[in-house]
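User: Sequence in, structure out. Go.
Assistant: Echoing your sequence, followed by the structure tokens.
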Amino acid sequence: MKFIKFLSERLKALKSPWILGFYIPCAVLATASIVGTLHYTGIINKSLSTAQGTTGVASRISSLGEQITKSVLLIEKAVRDEQPVSKPVYELQVAADRLDQIINAFNEGSETVAPDGMRFMLEAVSDEANMAVLQEMNVIWVGIKTRADAVVLASGPKKAVTDAMSFDQKTLSEAASFVAAQQTRLAESSLAFSRNLEKQFTTRALQLEFYRNTLTISGVVSLLALPAVFIVNRARRARNAANRLAAELSINQGELETKSRALAVAKVETDRIMETIQEGLMLVDAQGVIGAQHSRELEVILRSDNLSGANLLHILQRLLSEKMYKTTKDYFELLFDARRKEKAVIKVNPLSDIEVSFANPEGGFIHRHLGFSFRRIIEGDKVDRVFVAVRDITGQVELEKRLRDAEKLKERQLEILLGIVHASSEDLVGFTELAERELNAINAALRAEDFASPVPDRQKHLHERLMVVFRSIHNIKGNASFLRLEYFQKAADAFETKVSELLQRPILGGDDFLSIVVAQANLRTDLSDLLELQGKLTGLRSQGGVSTVSASPAVNQEGMSEGLRKLAQQLASELGKEIDFQVDAHAVQAVAAFRCDLVRDILIQLIRNSLAHGIELPTEREAAGKPRVARLWLRAAPRRDDGLVGLALRDDGRGLDIKRIRERARSAGLITEGIDLPAGELARLIFSAGFSTAEKADLNAGRGVGLDLLKTRVVDEIGGEIEVTTSAGRFCEFTFHLPEIPELSVV
């Protein structure tokens, strides 16, 4: 206004029209130039001030991100050390809120606070280059803010945090790892953003200064006579202000570069951590693509290089079975379904323990056990990526297996030990010797060269071999029952079941006998443990003053009679029957004097057969008008003219069911339909291999091998005889005669 007043006064002093005609346009032009210069000077000042505030605010993005990283790490350390975490939680919340407000201000334009504390209006970013960088910072910030909010929310609503145990260590570890990794990217992006802003404001300031200088020159040229000192002074002041602002911008830029170098150092340390950590760490997207950053151990575990950008699902497809790969693929879809709760998803992880096979460069395969764990990274309302940790747990799995095997061995040995404490050392030695003989017979029947060589009627040949195995294992089971060795009785019964299943097959092959070979090996191992435990038990008995001297044959024969009584009573109790068992001990000793083991085996099978098939339940006997307690007695059979001696076992049970035998014989194909054999011939069928009248097989009967074993051992092997006498509903008696062994002459 003073200048206009000055011009007005000068114009009033002018008298010449020509001078007025020249001076007035010059004055007008000068006035316009001055006004324009002042206008652009104001704009330049405002632009420089805005530039200073904007770049200052932009420079705070990196420092606030660094503060967030520091706070999360301090919270993690405090939780690990069980220290109060209220201060770092508060600092984390303040830094996150401030950084969120700054980024939103750049996105939408709003009032914010400059580094010097002055509030000013920040314009929304419109430059394409800055918008691209800002968009990248938005993506990075959303990831960091999600972790920061998760940590803050873990502290509880609107209250100070003093209990470090309220935080989830896994959530803090994942947040710290993620924020530290993303902070480097945020610092780099904020540095690029600040540089772009500085460049943009510098360009704009130069343009405005050009316009202002043009107007200034125009005013000077048009009004050389007009005093322009105040214009030059204002221009100088504006230039000085611009220089000061430029210097401040340079200082801010230096600080940003210093922080960028610090972040670069932090990145190097993070890379070292990723190179030395003993777990395979990575991030994968919904398609299974592995991110750019992963731990070095991941390449070691998966035996693959250059995993960045590789597809984890494709790698697993080469390592897993088709069924397991399909399950894994379905699980990945479940992981990226934001509607599913994470705890429920993690609970059904199918890859927590998987066995994989890597190709061995030297040939074959390398088998390893891997354990995968997953944590979802949620961006907004969707799962953006999944954090995956992989560990080689082969050593742990093998250790657990050895521990389980050792525990099973201890349990098995304890079960064997508890089952033999009641038996004498002589009985145990006798049982192991018998079992070894029978297992050797099984081994001979399963010789591989016999299976490999072509033989006529191969199926019949294999069936006969199975029957040899069947008889041997049945004899082991009978003797285990006689000595009340329940563990071996059950083991032999399980062995019998395998043989029985094979006998039911119409076609047999050599591979079908593998289960028999394995069962035989397991039984041999059990016998070895029995011998070892028996030796220890004998030592304990010796220390306790109990004699372990072997008994004489007479004592063994007497012990056989008592053992037979116990066997009969035990079986009767198991079957719910009541018996009165009378034994002619002298007769047993007389016959068993020369064939002790064979006599024992025969009587075991006959007693088991009588109790399983002949003797009725007490209620059935009472209904038939019989005494509730059944009678079972063992006596000597008369010596025959041909020198055969033997024993007879008689029970007053139901006798042989000839009708039932006929039905079973026809269904088994032993007699032709329409042909009616005499009762005596039908009775002899009970000695056929695999023949039984029991409804179902159990531990005591039903597989048709007991009487077949008697016929084989007595008739086929030593030339003895077996007779059976029966009366329906009254009794059944088995009589066997054995040839005497010739006495050896002593020279």
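User: And one key feature?
Assistant: DSSP finds 23 helices and twelve strands in the chain.
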